[in-house]
Amino acid sequence: MAELSPSEAARESWLADMAVLAPVAGEQLWEAELELLLSAWSESHRAYHNEQHLQEMLFALDCLSGTLTEVEHRIARIAAWFHDLAYNPRAQAGSNEYRSATKARDHLHRLGVEGDVVDAVEALILATVSHDGIEGGLVSSALSAAFNDADLWILSAPPRRYAEYARDVRTEYAHVPDAIFAAGRTQIMAALIDRPQVYATAKAQAEWEAAAHANISAELAALR
C-alpha cells in the first residue's frame, strides 16, 4: 500500500477522530467541517501558519504519542486542527489563540463532541499563548507536554526548513519595520532558548533539543 501524503494523512486522522469523538454527526458533517478548516488554514495571508504547519504538528504528535492514551492522542490532534484556526498577524498578543479556542468550542459543540473533550481542546489551545504546561480535566501533564512540544517541533527542523520557517514568519509580519521585528523576535526566541529545556517531553528533549538550540542560536546571531 502506498504511503499517504501529509495532506491525505491529515484528512484520514480528522475523519478517524470524528468517528470516535463525534459519531452522531455523521460523515457528511465531518467532511463539511474538514473543508471549513482547510479553507481557514489556506488563507492567503498565511506564510508559516498554514496547512504545512498543521501537517507537521500532526506528524510530531504521532512521534510523541507513546506517552498518551488513545483518547488523549485524538484530543491532541483535534486541538491541533483548531489551534491556529484564527490567525491575524496584526492582532493583539493572545487574541488569535482566544479566538481559535472560541471557534473550537462552537464548532465541536455543533458536531456533538462531549463537553469534557471540548474543554480539553480549549485548554490546550489557550496554553499555546505562553507554552507553559497545564493540567486538569482530561488534560494530563503528558497530554499538555506532547501538545506543547508538537507545536514547537519546527524549532528542531532541519536547517533548510527552519530557515524557510523564519522567512515565512517575517513575511507574515511584513507590516512591522525591520528594527522592531528584530527586537520582538529576539525577545521571543531568547526566552525559549533560556529555558532549562525548550521541550517538555523526554522524547523531544532527547531527539529535538540539540537541533532546536542550534537553530535558535543561529537565528539570534543573524537578528543581532
How is this structure best described in words?
- This protein has 224 residues and is mainly α.
- It has two domains: 6-151, no CATH class; 156-223, no CATH class.
- Helices cover 67% and strands 0% of the residues.
- It has helices spanning 6-21, 27-41, 51-63, 70-82, 95-111, 115-127, 141-151, 159-172, 178-193, 202-207, 209-223.
- Helix 1 (6-21) crosses helix 3 and helix 4 (70-82) packs across helix 6.
- The longest helix has 17 residues, at 95-111.
- The model has no long low-confidence stretch (mean pLDDT 95).
What is the count of distinct domains? 2
Which runs of at least 5 residues are low in confidence (pLDDT < 50)? none
Structural class: mainly alpha
Shape call: globular
The share of residues in extended strands comes to under 5%
For the biggest sheet, the summary is: none
Mean pLDDT value: 95
DSSP E strands, number? 0
Distance between the termini: 49 Å
Order of helices and strands: HHHHHHHHHHH
C-alpha Rg (nearest Å): 17 Å
Helix content: 55-70%
> Number of helix segments?
11
Which descriptors apply to this entry?
224 residues, mainly alpha, 2 domains, single chain
